[in-house]
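Subgroup meeting minutes
Present: P.N., E.W., G.H.
Scribe: E.W.

1. P.N. recapped why we're keeping a running log of single-chain structure predictions: easier to compare across weeks, and new members can see raw inputs and outputs side by side.
2. G.H. added today's entry (93 aa).
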Amino acid sequence: MIIGVLKIELHLPMPNSLKAKRAILKRLISRLRNAFNVSVSEVDYCDLWQRSLLGVTIVGNDKRYLNSVMDKVIDVIETIDDVELLQYAFEFV
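Output recorded in log:
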């Protein structure tokens, strides 16, 4: 069993409140969960309006498959207008 962990740091330029930030993240997290069957959670910067750190995990048997899924997750995030991808890091556990 291989666990893939992806940390994604985002800038959200639009929200002017935590409620607005949560609405954007809720749509993003739901989209990623439904499209790729991954676990997603905000893991840091929960009290900042315009910044977020998401943790994405996936479990499987093939590193190449896990890597391709995580690449697709990044591709989807880059297409969303409400968020700006600052940096990301991927590792196997």
